[in-house]
Design brief:
It is a single chain. The chain is mostly helical and about 160 residues long. Helix content is about 85%, strand content about 0%. The chain contains six helices and no strands. The chain is elongated. The protein starts with a helix and ends with a helix. It comes from Lentibacillus halophilus.
Length: about 160
């Protein structure tokens, strides 16, 4: 019975990770390039609505990955004492993954998302781009991409850590 519950939690962990990472990647590398042919103000409206709609879903998925990861390492895994975290290979990798996961989610929610919403909410920036002055918008979008790349680096780090578990 315990093994069956563990398998369900592993399934949820993987499904939530696919949703979190895949959702962020799909928006950044799929949706954004696909709408580049639209007028800037149309891009702004669509992306603002998409980001606001998907934010809670992706944040929930990220939180779920962290929660199921904690369960898989402790209740359904080999970590039963604090000593196991600091004195075993699994515990050390697990703790690094936990810290990276929490920091990645924090960064995505409080830094990357907030900056992106700020850029998308600045209608004057997008209207100026529609009128030919694209430099301020492109600078703001480049900064948004740079900030979001920190989240991507967190995802890559998590995947590397999971390979070593």
């Amino acid at each position: 019975m315990l093994w069956d519950i563990r398998q369900i939690i592993v399934f949820l962990h993987i499904l939530l990770a696919i949703t979190w990472v895949g959702g962020v990647f799909f928006i950044g590398w799929g949706v954004v390039p696909a709408i580049r042919k639209e007028a800037y103000t149309d891009q702004r409206r669509f992306l603002l609505a998409l980001m606001q709609w998907s934010h809670s879903l992706l944040t929930g998925a990220g939180g779920g990955v962290i929660a199921t990861g904690i369960l898989l390492g402790t209740v359904f895994g080999p970590i039963s004492r604090w000593n196991d975290i600091w004195h075993t290979y699994f515990g050390t990798i697990w703790m690094m993954a936990l810290v990276v996961g929490i920091l990645t989610l924090f960064w995505g929610v409080w830094i990357g998302f907030r900056y992106s919403i700020g850029v998308l909410s600045d209608a004057a920036l997008w209207e100026a781009a529609d009128n030919g002055d694209t430099t301020p918008l492109f600078r703001a979008l480049a900064k948004a991409a740079l900030l979001e790349s920190v989240e991507v680096a967190g995802f890559v780090t998590l995947i590397v850590l999971m390979v070593f578990l």
